[in-house]
Amino acid sequence: MQQQNQQQLPQGRPVGWNVLPNYTLSGMSSFDAESLPDYSEFDSESVTLDYYKESVLRPPAEKMAPTTTIETITITRPLKVIAFICGVIVVVLMIMALASTDWLMAADWRQGLFVHCIEDDSVPPLPFNIQDPPGCYWTRDIGYIKATAALCIITLVTDVIATVLTGLGLKTQNHNLKYKFYRIAVLVMLVSLLAVLSALIVYPVCFAGELSLGNRRVWEFGWAYGVGWGAAIFLFGAVVLLLCDKESEEIYYKERKIVHENQMRA
Q1: What pLDDT is recorded for position 194?
Q2: Any transmembrane segments, and where (predicted)?
Q3: Which domains does the chain possess?
Q4: Strands (E), the chain
Q5: pTM for this model (two decimals)
Q6: What is the pLDDT, as a whole number, of residue 184?
Q7: Are residues 34 and 219 in contact, defined by beta-carbon separation less than 8 angstroms?
Protein backbone atom coordinates (compact mmCIF):
# COMPACT_ATOMS: atom_id res chain seq x y z
CA MET A 1 0.00 0.00 0.00
CA GLN A 2 1.37 3.38 -0.99
CA GLN A 3 0.32 6.65 0.63
CA GLN A 4 0.56 9.95 -1.25
CA ASN A 5 -0.27 13.36 0.23
CA GLN A 6 -1.17 16.20 -2.03
CA GLN A 7 0.05 19.45 -0.50
CA GLN A 8 -1.55 21.78 -3.02
CA LEU A 9 -4.97 23.26 -2.33
CA PRO A 10 -7.67 22.69 -4.93
CA GLN A 11 -8.51 25.59 -7.14
CA GLY A 12 -11.58 27.58 -6.23
CA ARG A 13 -11.37 26.79 -2.48
CA PRO A 14 -10.48 29.47 0.09
CA VAL A 15 -7.37 29.34 2.17
CA GLY A 16 -7.87 27.49 5.44
CA TRP A 17 -10.19 24.89 3.94
CA ASN A 18 -9.73 21.60 5.75
CA VAL A 19 -8.49 19.04 3.33
CA LEU A 20 -8.40 15.40 4.11
CA PRO A 21 -5.38 13.56 2.77
CA ASN A 22 -6.10 11.36 -0.19
CA TYR A 23 -5.29 7.72 0.17
CA THR A 24 -4.50 5.44 -2.70
CA LEU A 25 -4.86 1.72 -2.28
CA SER A 26 -2.74 -0.43 -4.47
CA GLY A 27 -1.55 -3.96 -4.49
CA MET A 28 -3.33 -6.99 -3.16
CA SER A 29 -5.19 -6.15 0.05
CA SER A 30 -8.39 -7.22 1.74
CA PHE A 31 -10.57 -5.63 4.39
CA ASP A 32 -13.79 -6.31 6.25
CA ALA A 33 -16.75 -4.32 4.93
CA GLU A 34 -18.33 -4.16 8.37
CA SER A 35 -15.29 -2.31 9.73
CA LEU A 36 -15.97 0.65 7.43
CA PRO A 37 -18.36 3.36 8.65
CA ASP A 38 -21.51 4.13 6.73
CA TYR A 39 -20.87 7.12 4.50
CA SER A 40 -23.20 8.93 2.20
CA GLU A 41 -22.20 10.82 -0.89
CA PHE A 42 -24.21 13.75 0.37
CA ASP A 43 -22.37 14.01 3.72
CA SER A 44 -19.98 16.88 4.24
CA GLU A 45 -16.44 16.25 5.38
CA SER A 46 -17.19 17.29 8.98
CA VAL A 47 -20.12 14.86 9.20
CA THR A 48 -17.96 12.13 7.72
CA LEU A 49 -15.34 12.75 10.39
CA ASP A 50 -18.02 12.52 13.09
CA TYR A 51 -19.14 9.17 11.71
CA TYR A 52 -15.58 7.95 11.71
CA LYS A 53 -14.89 9.07 15.29
CA GLU A 54 -18.13 7.55 16.55
CA SER A 55 -17.41 4.22 14.92
CA VAL A 56 -13.92 4.20 16.42
CA LEU A 57 -15.07 5.12 19.95
CA ARG A 58 -18.09 2.77 20.01
CA PRO A 59 -17.23 -0.42 21.91
CA PRO A 60 -17.76 -3.69 20.09
CA ALA A 61 -20.94 -5.66 20.84
CA GLU A 62 -19.04 -8.45 22.59
CA LYS A 63 -17.70 -5.94 25.14
CA MET A 64 -21.06 -4.29 25.93
CA ALA A 65 -22.50 -5.16 29.35
CA PRO A 66 -25.85 -6.97 29.53
CA THR A 67 -28.88 -4.73 30.02
CA THR A 68 -31.21 -5.35 32.98
CA THR A 69 -34.83 -4.24 32.80
CA ILE A 70 -37.54 -4.36 35.49
CA GLU A 71 -40.98 -5.50 34.39
CA THR A 72 -44.16 -4.85 36.37
CA ILE A 73 -46.51 -7.85 36.35
CA THR A 74 -50.12 -7.50 37.52
CA ILE A 75 -51.75 -10.71 38.72
CA THR A 76 -55.50 -10.84 39.32
CA ARG A 77 -56.06 -12.32 42.74
CA PRO A 78 -58.65 -15.14 42.83
CA LEU A 79 -60.12 -13.84 46.09
CA LYS A 80 -61.17 -10.60 44.43
CA VAL A 81 -62.75 -12.54 41.58
CA ILE A 82 -64.70 -14.62 44.11
CA ALA A 83 -65.80 -11.42 45.87
CA PHE A 84 -67.08 -10.10 42.54
CA ILE A 85 -69.03 -13.33 41.96
CA CYS A 86 -70.52 -13.07 45.46
CA GLY A 87 -71.70 -9.56 44.65
CA VAL A 88 -73.43 -10.78 41.50
CA ILE A 89 -75.13 -13.58 43.44
CA VAL A 90 -76.39 -11.07 46.02
CA VAL A 91 -77.99 -9.00 43.25
CA VAL A 92 -79.92 -12.03 42.01
CA LEU A 93 -80.98 -13.06 45.52
CA MET A 94 -82.21 -9.60 46.48
CA ILE A 95 -84.29 -9.29 43.32
CA MET A 96 -85.90 -12.63 44.13
CA ALA A 97 -86.58 -11.59 47.72
CA LEU A 98 -88.14 -8.26 46.73
CA ALA A 99 -90.37 -9.84 44.09
CA SER A 100 -91.61 -12.72 46.24
CA THR A 101 -94.77 -12.87 48.37
CA ASP A 102 -93.42 -15.66 50.56
CA TRP A 103 -91.83 -13.71 53.39
CA LEU A 104 -94.49 -14.65 55.92
CA MET A 105 -96.87 -17.59 55.53
CA ALA A 106 -99.86 -19.06 57.32
CA ALA A 107 -102.96 -21.03 56.40
CA ASP A 108 -104.58 -19.36 53.36
CA TRP A 109 -102.21 -16.39 53.68
CA ARG A 110 -98.97 -15.24 52.03
CA GLN A 111 -97.31 -11.93 52.73
CA GLY A 112 -94.46 -10.21 50.93
CA LEU A 113 -92.88 -6.78 51.14
CA PHE A 114 -95.21 -5.20 48.59
CA VAL A 115 -98.12 -7.63 48.13
CA HIS A 116 -100.11 -10.05 50.29
CA CYS A 117 -102.26 -12.82 48.86
CA ILE A 118 -105.36 -14.59 50.16
CA GLU A 119 -105.85 -18.15 48.98
CA ASP A 120 -109.10 -19.52 47.64
CA ASP A 121 -111.49 -21.15 50.12
CA SER A 122 -109.86 -19.26 52.97
CA VAL A 123 -111.37 -19.71 56.43
CA PRO A 124 -112.42 -16.52 58.24
CA PRO A 125 -111.41 -14.64 60.21
CA LEU A 126 -108.47 -13.70 58.03
CA PRO A 127 -105.16 -12.61 59.50
CA PHE A 128 -105.12 -9.09 60.88
CA ASN A 129 -108.93 -8.92 60.45
CA ILE A 130 -108.73 -8.27 56.72
CA GLN A 131 -112.09 -8.48 54.91
CA ASP A 132 -110.87 -8.79 51.31
CA PRO A 133 -111.94 -11.63 49.00
CA PRO A 134 -109.37 -14.15 47.70
CA GLY A 135 -106.66 -12.60 45.55
CA CYS A 136 -103.51 -10.49 45.82
CA TYR A 137 -103.48 -6.92 47.13
CA TRP A 138 -100.99 -4.25 48.02
CA THR A 139 -99.48 -4.93 51.39
CA ARG A 140 -100.82 -3.44 54.58
CA ASP A 141 -99.80 0.08 55.50
CA ILE A 142 -97.57 -0.99 58.36
CA GLY A 143 -94.31 0.74 59.28
CA TYR A 144 -92.06 -2.28 59.73
CA ILE A 145 -93.07 -3.74 56.34
CA LYS A 146 -92.24 -0.48 54.58
CA ALA A 147 -88.98 -0.17 56.52
CA THR A 148 -87.97 -3.71 55.58
CA ALA A 149 -88.75 -3.07 51.91
CA ALA A 150 -86.75 0.18 51.95
CA LEU A 151 -83.76 -1.53 53.58
CA CYS A 152 -83.85 -4.33 51.02
CA ILE A 153 -83.91 -1.80 48.18
CA ILE A 154 -80.92 -0.03 49.73
CA THR A 155 -79.16 -3.39 49.95
CA LEU A 156 -79.78 -4.09 46.28
CA VAL A 157 -78.65 -0.65 45.07
CA THR A 158 -75.50 -0.52 47.20
CA ASP A 159 -74.55 -4.07 46.27
CA VAL A 160 -74.87 -3.25 42.57
CA ILE A 161 -72.58 -0.23 43.07
CA ALA A 162 -70.04 -2.27 45.05
CA THR A 163 -70.05 -5.09 42.49
CA VAL A 164 -69.50 -2.66 39.62
CA LEU A 165 -66.61 -1.03 41.50
CA THR A 166 -65.05 -4.43 42.13
CA GLY A 167 -65.35 -5.28 38.44
CA LEU A 168 -63.72 -1.98 37.48
CA GLY A 169 -60.91 -2.70 39.92
CA LEU A 170 -60.32 -6.07 38.29
CA LYS A 171 -60.35 -4.58 34.80
CA THR A 172 -58.24 -1.44 35.14
CA GLN A 173 -54.44 -1.54 34.78
CA ASN A 174 -53.86 1.62 36.82
CA HIS A 175 -52.73 0.36 40.23
CA ASN A 176 -53.68 3.49 42.17
CA LEU A 177 -57.13 3.55 40.60
CA LYS A 178 -57.48 -0.20 41.14
CA TYR A 179 -56.94 0.06 44.90
CA LYS A 180 -59.26 3.05 45.14
CA PHE A 181 -62.04 1.03 43.51
CA TYR A 182 -61.45 -1.83 45.96
CA ARG A 183 -61.52 0.42 49.02
CA ILE A 184 -64.75 2.13 47.97
CA ALA A 185 -66.29 -1.25 47.09
CA VAL A 186 -65.56 -2.58 50.59
CA LEU A 187 -67.19 0.43 52.24
CA VAL A 188 -70.28 0.23 50.02
CA MET A 189 -70.60 -3.51 50.65
CA LEU A 190 -70.45 -2.87 54.39
CA VAL A 191 -73.38 -0.46 54.04
CA SER A 192 -75.25 -3.09 52.03
CA LEU A 193 -74.53 -5.75 54.65
CA LEU A 194 -75.74 -3.55 57.50
CA ALA A 195 -78.91 -2.70 55.58
CA VAL A 196 -79.89 -6.31 54.88
CA LEU A 197 -79.10 -7.40 58.44
CA SER A 198 -81.27 -4.59 59.79
CA ALA A 199 -84.12 -5.66 57.51
CA LEU A 200 -83.84 -9.31 58.53
CA ILE A 201 -83.90 -8.39 62.23
CA VAL A 202 -86.60 -5.70 62.13
CA TYR A 203 -89.11 -7.81 60.19
CA PRO A 204 -89.55 -10.74 62.63
CA VAL A 205 -89.20 -8.61 65.76
CA CYS A 206 -91.92 -6.19 64.70
CA PHE A 207 -94.14 -9.00 63.45
CA ALA A 208 -93.99 -10.61 66.88
CA GLY A 209 -95.62 -7.47 68.26
CA GLU A 210 -98.77 -7.98 66.17
CA LEU A 211 -98.88 -11.76 66.41
CA SER A 212 -102.00 -11.57 68.57
CA LEU A 213 -103.89 -10.18 65.56
CA GLY A 214 -102.79 -12.98 63.27
CA ASN A 215 -105.85 -15.21 63.81
CA ARG A 216 -103.64 -18.20 62.99
CA ARG A 217 -101.85 -20.57 65.32
CA VAL A 218 -99.00 -21.51 63.01
CA TRP A 219 -96.85 -18.91 61.28
CA GLU A 220 -93.65 -19.49 59.41
CA PHE A 221 -91.18 -17.45 57.46
CA GLY A 222 -91.10 -18.34 53.79
CA TRP A 223 -88.24 -19.02 51.44
CA ALA A 224 -87.92 -15.34 50.52
CA TYR A 225 -86.90 -14.53 54.08
CA GLY A 226 -84.29 -17.29 53.86
CA VAL A 227 -83.06 -15.84 50.57
CA GLY A 228 -82.46 -12.58 52.44
CA TRP A 229 -80.19 -14.41 54.89
CA GLY A 230 -78.42 -16.05 51.97
CA ALA A 231 -77.73 -12.62 50.50
CA ALA A 232 -76.37 -11.48 53.86
CA ILE A 233 -74.00 -14.46 53.98
CA PHE A 234 -72.67 -13.81 50.48
CA LEU A 235 -72.25 -10.11 51.29
CA PHE A 236 -70.29 -10.95 54.42
CA GLY A 237 -68.07 -13.29 52.43
CA ALA A 238 -67.41 -10.65 49.77
CA VAL A 239 -66.45 -8.07 52.39
CA VAL A 240 -64.08 -10.49 54.12
CA LEU A 241 -62.44 -11.49 50.84
CA LEU A 242 -61.83 -7.89 49.82
CA LEU A 243 -60.46 -7.00 53.25
CA CYS A 244 -58.19 -10.03 53.63
CA ASP A 245 -56.63 -9.85 50.16
CA LYS A 246 -53.62 -7.55 50.53
CA GLU A 247 -53.07 -4.89 47.90
CA SER A 248 -49.33 -5.48 47.66
CA GLU A 249 -49.82 -9.07 46.57
CA GLU A 250 -51.27 -8.01 43.25
CA ILE A 251 -48.11 -6.33 41.87
CA TYR A 252 -44.88 -8.18 41.19
CA TYR A 253 -41.59 -6.83 39.88
CA LYS A 254 -39.47 -9.07 37.69
CA GLU A 255 -35.91 -8.41 36.55
CA ARG A 256 -34.97 -9.51 33.06
CA LYS A 257 -31.40 -9.49 31.74
CA ILE A 258 -30.96 -8.76 28.04
CA VAL A 259 -27.85 -10.41 26.54
CA HIS A 260 -26.62 -9.20 23.17
CA GLU A 261 -26.67 -11.60 20.26
CA ASN A 262 -22.89 -11.61 19.80
CA GLN A 263 -22.42 -12.60 23.45
CA MET A 264 -24.82 -15.50 23.03
CA ARG A 265 -22.89 -16.73 20.02
CA ALA A 266 -19.62 -16.48 21.92
Answers
A1: 97
A2: 81-99, 147-170, 182-203, 223-244
A3: 1-58 (no CATH), 78-244 (1.20.140.150)
A4: 67-74, 104-106, 109-111, 115-118, 135-138, 220-221, 251-258
A5: 0.66
A6: 94
A7: no
